[in-house]
Structure formats: structure tokens, C-alpha cells
Design a protein that fits this description.
Blueprint: H1 9-29, E1 35-44, E2 51-56, H2 66-74, E3 82-85, H3 96-103, E4 111-113, H4 117-120, H5 129-137, H6 156-165, E5 169-170, E6 174-179, E7 184-189, E8 213-217, H7 223-231, E9 236-239, E10 268-274, E11 277-283, E12 302-310
Helix pairs in contact: 2-3
Length: 312
């Protein structure tokens, strides 16, 4: 007996079993195989002491994710000099208490944050193939697509109030500072470009000359945001959003970034150049997934500990 289209039934069954095993691995193992990435960035002014920065991004918390909460709890043992949260903390309208529990120990450290689209709006079921189609069409988020109608609104204000109460600095289309024992740092942040909430004109003007070092922070690494930061003279940019591609091909890499950034820079440390100016760019692959596509393949969830060192 043969399957349809002349494919032997045994082969069809084998392919189906292989695909099923891949889904089980991607959802049951890799999506919960949390990693710590360590990166060194030679970006500080000469003579400045090293700074250890913990970047947390794209948690996408859903109620009941105890392993993720426990792992995030444990990161406080790294004793970073400060924390940068690059957004998309939520994937559940009722998960704010669990996000705050997970980040509670880290909120004892100085920190800054921006929000992403999933902090503001709840996710919807979505065919993953649409990401490939949008890449071909040059459409990403609300950039070229029709506005979202009937979206679920997340209680992002509760997150904001808790972060603010802990002393973390809100960088929503604004500037902020952290005074650390070894340095005073300035930050310039944008709201999420993925849903057209970025307003660079409000923060334009370049790094704060009175600070020891300045950093640009944004959730989604759209080129217009990276171009503006780099042209203004920022030497370090931090972003998230891409999930590192989330479903990658071994020995090849990501197929999409869910924005207009190229796939070669979908995660990790790279550079961004505008004219004669170049910035270091670090894109976090994040430690979560959309609740409706809870899978990762060849792209484990992660948090990054960046060690900023002096330029040679």
C-alpha cells in the first residue's frame, strides 16, 4: 500500500514521526533550556573600570512557568553592576505578579528598562509562516501592516509602577542616569519601534557629555532607531525582540528577525555603521516565546552578561 502522491507509507510515517519528535524537542526541551551568554565589549573610555551589565529581554511570562522564574531568580547571584531590561516581559494578561517575582532579586540592583509590544498588548495565535511572508514583503509589525484592531491590553502600568518603585529608570522615549560607585552612566531610550511608538526627536542630541559613558536602549532593533543612535554618536546599543530567530536551521542560522535588521545580526554582538560612525550593537535572543508558539529550535533561550571594558 502506498500513500498519496506515490510516497511510500513507511516514508510518510517516518517523516511524520521525525517532525513530531522535533516539535517535542523544541517545545519540551529547548524552549526551557535556559543559558547565560557572556560577552565582552571593549567600548568604555580608556582608564575606566570594567562594568558588568545583565541584559534581560523577551521573558514573555505565562502563568505557571516555574522553571523560568527560578532561573531568573538565580541570576542575582551574578552580582551585576546594573541590569538592562529590553522589554516584552509579558505573554499573559495575568502574569504581572509572576514577572515581578521572577525579577524581584534583580530589582535590588540598579537598572533601566524599556517596554516592547507584548508588554502593552496580549499575543494572538499566528501562523509562523507569516513571518517569512512579511520578510519578503518588507512588512514588520505595524510598519507597513494595517493597525491591530481589537487587541488585548496588558496591565503594563503595573509593571511600570513596580519597576519605578524599585528604582529602575524608565527610558520610554526619554533619557535617564544611573550613578554607580565606579561611574555615572547616561541612557537614552526609545519606546517600541515595532508598533511605531518610538519618538527619537524627543531624545535627539547625542550622548550626555557630563556622564562617564552613554548607552542607547530600544526593544526592537529597527534600522531607523539604530541609524539615529549611531549617527548621534552612541557607541553601545542594546536591543531584544528578535528571539534570535527562534526557529533556526542548524549550521545556517535564523530565517527571520521580525524587523528590518538582517539575519546576520539577529542575536549577539555586532556593529552598526552610519557614515563614519560605528556603534557596538548587542541583540538579546531573549529567554521566552510567544505563548502560542512556545518552541525554539537551534536557538536556546538566554540572558546575557556583558562585561564592558576600556577601549585598547
Amino acid at each position: 500500500m502506498r500513500a498519496r502522491y506515490g510516497i511510500p507509507l513507511k516514508i510518510t510515517a517516518g517523516l511524520t514521526a521525525t517532525a513530531a519528535a522535533g516539535v517535542v524537542y523544541a517545545a519540551g526541551f529547548e524552549a526551557r533550556s535556559f543559558r547565560l551568554r557572556r560577552v565582552t565589549v571593549p567600548v568604555l573610555p580608556r582608564g575606566m573600570r570594567d562594568l558588568r551589565v545583565l541584559q534581560v529581554s523577551d521573558i514573555h511570562m505565562v502563568r505557571g512557568q516555574g522553571k523560568k522564574r527560578a532561573w531568573l531568580h538565580s541570576l542575582a547571584g551574578l552580582r551585576p553592576d546594573f541590569v538592562v531590561n529590553t522589554g516584552d516581559n509579558l505573554s499573559d494578561t495575568e502574569a504581572v505578579p509572576e514577572v515581578l517575582d521572577a525579577l524581584g532579586p534583580l530589582m535590588e540592583f540598579p537598572g533601566v528598562y524599556v517596554f516592547g509590544s507584548n508588554d502593552y498588548y496580549g499575543p494572538r495565535p499566528r501562523n509562523p509562516a507569516r513571518y517569512l511572508l512579511e520578510k519578503v514583503q518588507g512588512k514588520h509589525g505595524l510598519n507597513g501592516n494595517p493597525p491591530v484592531v481589537g487587541a488585548v491590553h496588558n496591565p503594563w502600568e503595573d509593571l511600570r509602577d513596580a519597576f519605578d518603585a524599585a528604582g529602575w529608570v524608565n527610558l520610554t522615549n526619554t533619557r535617564g542616569r544611573l550613578k554607580l560607585p565606579q561611574a555615572e552612566l547616561a541612557f537614552t531610550g526609545l519606546d517600541d519601534p515595532h508598533i511605531k511608538r518610538d519618538r527619537y526627536e524627543r531624545v535627539a542630541g547625542g550622548p550626555d557629555a557630563s556622564a562617564d559613558f552613554s548607552v542607547g536602549v530600544v526593544h526592537a532593533p529597527y534600522l531607523r532607531a539604530l541609524d539615529a543612535f549611531t549617527a548621534d554618536g552612541y557607541e553601545l546599543l542594546l536591543a531584544g525582540h528578535t528571539h534570535g530567530g527562534q526557529l533556526c536551521i542548524p549550521f545556517y542560522g535564523a530565517l527571520v528577525t521580525n524587523c528590518d535588521l538582517d539575519t546576520d545580526r539577529v542575536k549577539g554582538l555586532s556593529t552598526h555603521t552610519v557614515g563614519d560612525r560605528t556603534s557596538y550593537l548587542h541583540v538579546s535572543a531573549g529567554c521566552g516565546t510567544n505563548r502560542y508558539t512556545p518552541v525554539r529550535f537551534a536557538c536556546p533561550p538566554e540572558v546575557t552578561l556583558l562585561t564592558l571594558t576600556a577601549r585598547a
